[in-house]
Amino acid sequence: xxxxxxxxxxxxxxxxxxxxxxxxxxxxxxxxxxxxxxxxxxxxxxxxxxxxxxxxxxxxxxxxxxxxxxxxxxxxxxxxxxxxxxxxxxxxxxxxxxxxxxxxxxxxxxxxxxxxxxxxxxxxxxxxxxxxxxxxxxxxxxxxxxxxxxxxxxxxxxxxxxxxxxxxxxxxxxxxxxxx
Length: 180
Fold this sequence. Notes:
CATH class: Alpha Beta
Oligomer: single chain
CATH topology: Alpha/beta knot
Low-confidence stretches: none
């Protein structure tokens, strides 16, 4: 066994990525404060070919060196939009037929392992590192999912949790031949 060289990975150029098909889901960041987390989330969004990322509230937007440092250029490939009023934006998407899914511990959240992802289109909503998703946004969501955890902590870093949830969503759709 040997590690693959970069040239062997078959990576797409930014332009090829922009033209490539995407998974039929989007991502909304609610007041995520760390530029490093935003960059990491954009990098995960690139890896799982998310259609679009909404940067809500005071979530920092590219360009910024700290975002670029963790995104490694994904801020150039992933479609993103700065949305000052995320609640209004998500309400409009919901009116268009999008399902809203919160990544949050709630009284009704389902384990990510058992969750049956709804038919697209949908938006995964992730929240602030300290306070989670705002109550007003949570009230708009149709579903809530949580990541099973077995240690002493009850949360993961928002970028890590988002990456896990995107992986599970992509795996679900890939297994059902919705995307290939």
